[in-house]
Amino acid sequence: MEISTLAMYHCLAFVWYFFVNYSISRVRAEERPSEVFLYGRQWKYLTILNLVLQAVFYGVSFLADVLRLIKKLRCAKCVTSSRDLLFSVLAFPVSTFVSVSFWTLYTYNRELVYPKSLDGVIPLWLNHAM
């Protein structure tokens, strides 16, 4: 894949994850369930932390692509190796764990991972974006 196309993809993915993170931080409900955001607000959920991690990963990937496009080779190698380390150590394993554990528990018992009381707090489009 050409670097400019890859840079555009990474930019769009970064903007999307940034937008989803921003939208989640703006979720306010007057009548939210008492047990949902009692301690730590939304930051206690691994799904939210995974979204932040994905935004960071795509931001670093976009930066690495831009640096490769403008030919700053010394700095680009450092950012590229940081991106690869971030992906192999954090982004892929955490995303895989979150996805597999969420859908396994959701299939077993929905109330364990996504209570029905959250349906009125988090909009449907934002739930699917996560």
Structural write-up:
By secondary structure, the protein is mostly helical. It has one domain (5-27, 42-129). Helix content is 72%, strand content 0%. The chain has 5 helices and no strands. Helix 1 packs antiparallel against helix 2 and helix 2 packs antiparallel against helix 3. The longest helix is centred in the C-terminal third of the chain and has 36 residues, at 73-108. The model has no long low-confidence stretch (mean pLDDT 80). Belongs to the AIG1 family. It is a multi-pass membrane protein. It is found in: Endomembrane system. This is Androgen-dependent TFPI-regulating protein.
Give the total of domains: 1
Coarse morphology: elongated
Percent of residues in helical segments?
A: over 70%
What pattern of helices and strands is seen along the backbone?
HHHHH
Number of strands: 0
> Which range does the strand content fall in?
under 5%
Kindly provide the radius of gyration, computed on alpha-carbon positions and rounded to a whole number of angstroms: 17 Å
Determine the N-to-C terminus distance.
Answer: 27 Å
Number of helical elements: 5
Low-confidence stretches are: none
Nearest-integer average pLDDT: 80
